[in-house]
Amino acid sequence: MKYFLICFICIYGFGLNCQNLTIKIEKGNTMNTLKDQIEKQSDYKLAYAEEISSQLTFNIEMDYENISISDLIKELNHKLPHDFKALGNNITIKPHGIKMDTQSPHTLSGSIYDENNQPLFGASITVQKLQKGTTTDEEGKFSLQLPQGRHEVTISFLGYNSITKSILLNRDMDWSLQMQPGGETLEEVIIEQNNKATNIKKPQMSMNSLSMKEIKQIPVALGEPDPLKSLLTLPGVTNAGEGSSGFNVRGGAADQNLILLDNVPIYSDSHLFGFFSVFNADAVNSLDLYKGGIPSKYG
């Protein structure tokens, strides 16, 4: 049994080394060219970071006939500034001096000041790509741990122009930054008195008034203003439904409304399903609507 295992291991290793390749690389080719040639002629797959594909451009020519995988890896390690290593059916590629395990983080610290060199409390320091960030303390200082590499760091504070810097973090770094005021200057806004504001000095509540000038400004059908239709623009008033000329006030029915014209009851308030009004808009001065707290004189 022992002899059988030894023979199997020897045959398996010999089979891997027997995958001889023909490699032809010209100046200017990238790692993708080498990857395509190896993967088409063998069972090996190249594994490397995306940035290596763009960073590594061959400045030498390589021409090999009937070369084994192990010999090709030795040649590549000798001629290129990268480490090639076979792991199973994969060939890993990494720059020289870079370990496969996670690198220890570095500390980015510093202070943020305003235009008068006063510390800014609460300024945000964020690294969007890593979804990490922090804020400054009362003295304008901050500290943030980031992995080694290049990062886009953004400093922002309300009312100031944001600052974005690209840093190569390969050691602990200390910053001292000054922010400048920013933002947009808006045009002045003049607030005038609203003549429709509620007069809190009067005891009467839940009453709305419309002048004829306001009623005539409301778009109407057939060009004839209707004082009753203008009530639908007020809060708490809804239409009684399609094909109906009445209106509901705070959930009440249309037949529960009392309509008075100069204190005279009006029992039919519309013509032809509400298309025409019974009130002459030129003869009406104003309209008052009581939705609650109705005076006793109206019953």
TrEMBL record:
Residues annotated as transmembrane: none
Subcellular location: Cell outer membrane
Record keywords, A-Z: Cell outer membrane, Membrane, Transmembrane, Transmembrane beta strand, Transport
Membrane topology value: Multi-pass membrane protein
Pfam families in the cross-refs: CarbopepD_reg_2, Plug
TonB-dependent receptor plug domain: residues covered: 206-299
Family: Belongs to the TonB-dependent receptor family.
Protein name: TonB-dependent receptor plug domain-containing protein
Organism the protein comes from: Zunongwangia profunda
